[in-house]
Design goal:
Elements (H helix, E strand, L loop, with lengths): L2 H4 L5 E3 L10 H10 L4 E3 L8 H10 L3 E6 L17 H18 L4 E2 L10 H19 L2
Parallel strand pairs: 1-2, 2-3, 3-4
Helix pairs in contact: 2-3
């Protein structure tokens, strides 16, 4: 028997895509709890304030496993690989980390943006800038 078979599996429900649309965060979390999930991922939690999240999670205790960095307001898919958008990308990383910390989420997925050939260098430079910023936040 493999190690994976010996440990308990913990499935996370993506509350942005499962169970249909709902305007209410509280309603979404109630549906997820009734379906038997203990963990969720919410790719884009920024529709709701941290206060709304905390209140909803108090009534519906769930573990958040994944959050994405923001997409952008004009249909972008993130900014990590987008030329001349480093500050927008870093603002998104800062917001994502703020949400992760407040909601005890262990994973922040970096949204790269439109994947076009030749943007690898921009992507790497922006990831290094975000890493340097994050390291500074860890210093006491």
């Amino acid at each position: 028997e493999s190690k994976a078979m010996k440990r308990n599996l913990n499935f996370a429900c993506n509350i942005g895509t499962m169970f249909g649309p709902s305007e209410s965060l509280m309603e979404r979390l109630q549906i997820v709890k009734r379906a038997g999930f203990e963990s969720i991922e919410m790719a884009f939690p920024y529709t709701w304030s941290l206060e709304q999240w905390k209140e909803a999670l108090l009534e519906n205790p769930l573990n958040i496993q994944l959050i994405n960095t923001p997409l952008g307001e004009k249909g972008e898919f993130g900014f990590a690989a987008t030329p001349n958008q480093r500050e927008t990308f870093l603002d998104g990383v800062r917001m994502g980390i703020k949400y992760c910390k407040a909601l005890k989420c262990p994973r922040l997925h970096i949204m790269a943006g439109s994947a076009k050939i030749g943007r690898e260098e921009v992507f790497i430079e922006n990831l290094l800038a975000a890493t340097a910023w994050a390291i500074q936040q860890l210093k006491f």
